[in-house]
TrEMBL record:
Membrane topology: Single-pass membrane protein; Single-pass type II membrane protein
Enzyme class: transferase
Organism encoding this protein: Urochloa decumbens
Gene3D superfamilies per record: Vaccinia Virus protein VP39 (3.40.50.150)
One term of GO molecular function: methyltransferase activity
Name by which UniProt lists this protein: Methyltransferase
Length: 706
């Protein structure tokens, strides 16, 4: 009535219009008053949602505490949180970003020779790039409710659980029930003689090594994991930079990233490595490669045409690899090599290899088995690897026999093959007797133009020779000896049959690359678990679709700067197989508490190993560009603390690179705040994937997070 009298001066036709206008104004005012944020209005969008990561990042000096960025949940279901981290000073910092969506990933200007790798650096290194809008997955999502990003009170829905055909060892649940108290991160305290920036907890346990009763069998180079498990961070080397991009990195790396010059002097006459200005340069030489590794590889092909690099031979184990030039140059021939050496006086050789972008792993043939399945490698190579194969009853060579595929070759280039001094002659006689006793056939013995000798042996493909031996030494292993798992298992003193009593064997796979998707009908001697072909095929198709549609298109990952990749729960190797055409390699890790699928991975022409993720991995810090974990964290955190897992992930991952977690939203909700406490930039995609970019932040030496 009051409203009507207030508008009595208007005509009857105009009065309803005026009332409608005033009601709209009143209701809009009430909506603005009680709305939680302007972004809640349907016609309002945050300007930052239209910007690339480089446009929205906040520059922070290395002495300032970065502000915590809020979490935003976009209409496409992607939750993103970017925590700015301090960047190194101008001498050490990654290349300056531009205002484009993909900033430059080049390396730094330098007057040093050889020419800078800057020009060939891959474009783009967008650590917090905003993902593209959601695309439909091949199968409908399963709706679940759970907490969203830590600190966000909204309930989110997304994809969870196992899709048809997806490898999900251990299941998708099992998250820690209690809230995780965020740590106050500190730098690791290391023992005397250990370089803090190179700390490997299970190989640098000084107190445990001091307590060893014997060092005769290289016990001090084996794993001795500390208790309690580390929850600390490894510092960066002074003036650390993002690595030189592949393929230039095969031939040159930044000196400051691996500042260990001892090999330059120690191997100066053998062309392993030399220092040139701000770089280490790798000429492709070696102790046995007088004319370079390319000529050496060609020489092996000439004396053994059946080796057929990249066709018949796909997987190689290089024992005592040096700086891994042999494996690095075999990549040109489509051969993937696991370069192996201990952490010893040959300072940082495996660290050099991984910095170069070449697959490598720290291990020693001492008292325990290597973390590989039986009958896995097509070829094993040793060039002056300084292992006494005939020692301790021949156990070291029996270990090579265990991991060499039946019909595979052992290439030995060492002084006993061609020198005639008494020690070499005695070593040669011992090697002849041992190889004969294990039925290895000498295929060829030859010398190159520099008179460097090579002998090539072949492992038998049947048990007939074993059964025909006059002396049963070494004896055949019993198939009832128990588990064939090599994890923390003593070396065998017996020969395991090539063909089991049930008739199952290990026939040679078909040629590469067809073997990647071969029909895996082989029965594996060391695995009691049977996998259906349908499940493996489904797993392959699942990863192919998921990687092409989501990983390569929606993740805030600059794949052009990714070289070293680790799949922390590899299953059948489907993730690695889906990336086979990318210029990268994948270390496939099968956790020791998951089904044993590693023989299948090797049969596909991929490489990997066993590991327990409650312990540190045998690699140097900052050696991988991308760590991938799929449905493992929940079960894992029932055995060890999630902070210990996060600390190991941080140790392995390079600054400026990525950790990708696929899991339930509940498990993601546990890990995300821990990674943000490390100043990682995090993005949640489809309520199923956590993509986290590591920065250059480290706590100071007193433990304060500056």
């Amino acid at each position: 009535m009051a409203i009507s009298s207030a508008f009595s001066f208007l005509s009857d036709r105009k009065r309803p219009i005026a009332v409608a206008v005033i009601l709209f104004i009143v209701l809009s005012s009430l909506f603005l008053l009680f709305s939680p944020a302007p972004s809640a209005l349907p016609f309002f969008s945050s300007p930052s949602s239209h910007l690339s990561s480089s446009e929205t990042s906040i520059p922070v000096s290395s002495n300032e505490s970065p502000p915590e960025a809020p979490t935003s949940v976009a209409s496409d279901g992607v939750s993103s949180r970017a925590t700015a981290d301090p960047v190194p000073d101008s001498a050490d910092a990654p290349p300056p970003t531009t205002t484009t969506a993909a900033a430059s990933d080049g390396v730094f200007n330098s007057t040093a020779e050889p020419p800078r790798p800057d020009a060939a650096a891959a474009a783009g290194d967008s650590e917090a790039e905003v993902p593209s809008p959601d695309h439909a997955l091949p199968t409908p999502p399963v709706e679940v409710e759970g907490s969203g990003s830590a600190g966000n009170n909204e309930t989110t829905t997304g994809v969870s659980g196992e899709r048809d055909g997806e490898w999900q060892g251990g299941g998708g649940g099992g998250a820690v029930e209690e809230p995780v108290e965020l740590p106050s991160w500190e730098l690791c305290e290391v023992g005397k003689g250990v370089v803090a920036a190179d700390y490997i907890p299970c190989l640098d346990n000084v107190e445990a090594i001091k307590a060893l009763k014997s060092l005769r069998h290289m016990e001090h180079r084996e794993r001795h994991c500390p208790e309690p498990r580390p929850r600390c961070l490894v510092p960066l080397p002074e003036r650390y930079r993002r690595p030189v991009p592949w393929p230039l990195s095969r031939d040159m790396i930044w000196y400051n990233n691996v500042p260990h010059p001892k090999l330059v002097e120690y191997k100066k006459d053998q062309n392993w490595v030399r220092k040139s200005g701000n770089y280490f340069v790798f000429p492709g030489g070696g102790t046995q490669f007088k004319n370079g590794v390319t000529a050496y590889i060609r020489f092996i092909q000439q004396i053994l045409p059946n080796i057929q690099w990249g066709i018949h031979t796909r997987t190689v184990l290089d024992v005592g690899c040096g700086v891994a030039s042999f494996g690095g140059y075999l990549l040109d021939r489509k051969v993937i090599t696991m370069s192996l050496a201990p952490k010893d006086e040959h300072e940082a050789q495996i660290q050099f290899a991984l910095e170069r972008g070449i697959p490598a792993f720290l291990a020693v043939i001492g008292t325990q088995k290597l973390p590989f399945p039986d009958n896995s490698f097509d070829v094993i190579h040793c060039a002056r690897c300084r292992v006494h194969w005939y020692a301790d009853g021949g156990k070291p060579l029996l270990e090579l026999n265990r991991v060499l595929r039946p019909g595979g070759y052992y290439i030995w280039s060492a002084t006993p093959v061609y020198r005639k001094d008494q020690r070499d002659v005695d070593d040669w006689k011992a090697m002849v007797a041992l190889t004969k006793s294990i039925c290895w056939r000498t295929v060829v013995k030859s010398r190159d133009i520099n008179k460097i000798g090579v002998v090539i042996y072949q492992k038998p493909t049947s048990n007939s020779c074993y059964l025909d031996r006059k002396n049963n030494k070494p004896p055949l292993c019993s198939e009832n000896d128990g588990s064939r798992s090599p994890w923390y298992t003593p070396l065998d003193s017996c020969l395991f049959p090539v063909v089991s009593s049930s008739g199952g064997g290990n026939s040679w796979p078909i040629s590469w690359p067809e073997r990647l998707n071969m029909k895996h009908t082989t029965t594996f001697n060391n695995s009691s678990i049977q996998f259906s072909q349908e499940k493996m095929d489904s797993d392959t198709n699942h990863w192919k679709d998921l990687v092409s549609e989501v990983y390569l298109n929606e993740f805030a990952v600059n794949w052009s700067s990714v070289r070293n990749v680790m799949d922390m729960n590899a299953g059948f190797g489907g993730f690695a197989a889906s990336l086979i055409h990318q210029p990268l390699w994948v270390m496939n890790v099968v956790p020791v508490d998951q089904p044993d699928t590693l023989p299948i991975i090797f049969n596909r022409g991929l490489i990997g190993l066993y590991h327990n993720w409650c312990e540190s991995f045998n690699t140097y810090p900052r050696t991988y560009d991308l760590l991938h974990m799929s449905y493992l964290l929940g079960p894992l955190t029932k055995r060890c603390h999630i902070i210990e897992v996060a600390a190991e992930i941080d140790r392995i991952l390079r600054p400026g690179r990525w950790f990708v977690l696929q899991d339930t939203i509940e498990v993601i909700g546990k890990m995300e705040p821990i990674l943000r406490s490390l100043h990682y930039r995090t993005t949640i995609v489809r309520q199923r994937f956590l993509v986290a970019a590591k920065g250059f932040w480290r706590p100071d030496s007193t433990g304060s997070q500056s």
